[in-house]
What does this fold into?
Amino acid sequence: MLPQEIIRRKRNKDVLTPEEIREFIAGIGNHTVDDVQVAAMTMAIFLNGLNREETVALTLAMRDSGEVLQWADFDKPIVDKHSSGGVGDKVSLMLAPMLAACDVYVPMIAGRGLGHTGGTVDKLEAIPHYNTQADNNLFRQTVKKVGCAIIGQTGNLAPADKKIYAIRDVCGTVESIPLITASILSKKLAAGLQYLIMDLKCGNGAFMANFDDAKALAQSIIEVSNGAGTKACAVLTDMNQVLGSTAGNAVEVKEALEYLQGKNINPRLDAVTRELCIELLQLCGRAGSYAAAAAMVESALSSGNALEKFAQMVASLGGPTDFVEHSERYLPRSAHQKPVYAEHSGYVCGVNARAVGLSIIELGGGRIVPTQKLDLATGYSEFAQIGDYVDGGKPLAMVHYQTEEQFMRAESALRKAINIGDQAPTSNNPILLKM
It folds into this structure.
């Protein structure tokens, strides 16, 4: 069928057949479908939606536009987690080795920063010589030997998604649940996963600020993933403040490492990371109950096995063999570190996490243009949490910066982003909903 006829049918709110969807997506790869036709199709989908069967067909067609990894010779569950993005979200850095220590395989294909949110791949590139663009052979070898590997998306995995996303980004069709679902899952299914957990962030620092929208996206991802043959579940987590005590690249790697070492553990970060591990271990059948899964996670951490898995992953992917022991020798360090204090004492009552994320871009830790080289040393540590009392001795955050101009901008941004009040707010559970 002609591409324009497929577009016309969706414009007229018709239900597309799997064959029509496959033909259209295949046309992107063989250049029989033009970019303007992709733009028209995404707008038709944005306006008229897709039903569950159409979304499954779109996801599978995008998955099959490139290579699909196979793990037939691997004798343990193949699992992964995807986060919708947030500020200070370094969960993947701990979760992958924790799961590997619980005797599952974790082939994690992560992303770079997008907008105000940080990216796992950018964080890992703060580790010298860590190969985030490993080829499939090294990726498979590391997963087999260590149990986990975290790398970036290669050009051979779901290439149709790259094209469609780039067009959506400039055509005003990003905020479509069927298109978001297919974009996320096409990459994850191309990695050959058997089980997937979605960490869907909700709040002012997330792409989905509204709870109902976040829940709808989670439901879509679960239904489509299950329909495409990968068992899935989701956890909605709070993103109304920085997750953990750091935000940046190298500083987040340091916090993740200290977490695995049992030091300086942030309660919210710990709760989210453990919950995702526990739910995924139950989903894949490694644990028969919540309590059993929780015990496995605790053992992985307390025994040091998760820390050892992290060390092995770093070494296998080209990083220093003694990174865990001597991370301070390797992680980039900014020229200056200075605290920012509140203008008056009080309790932290609210944080505009999105504004914090944007301020990291101002520090050079995030991108203004796609080709920008990041300053991986900048960011924030000792970030105050909602409910903390801040005064002349307790800062809002420690700024890691290179120039005084950067510090002045960061100081102004933090004071605007963090709301100080006279009464301590009630603490909230970072786990909003399990699905």
About this structure: The CA atoms of residues 92 and 120 lie 7 Å apart.
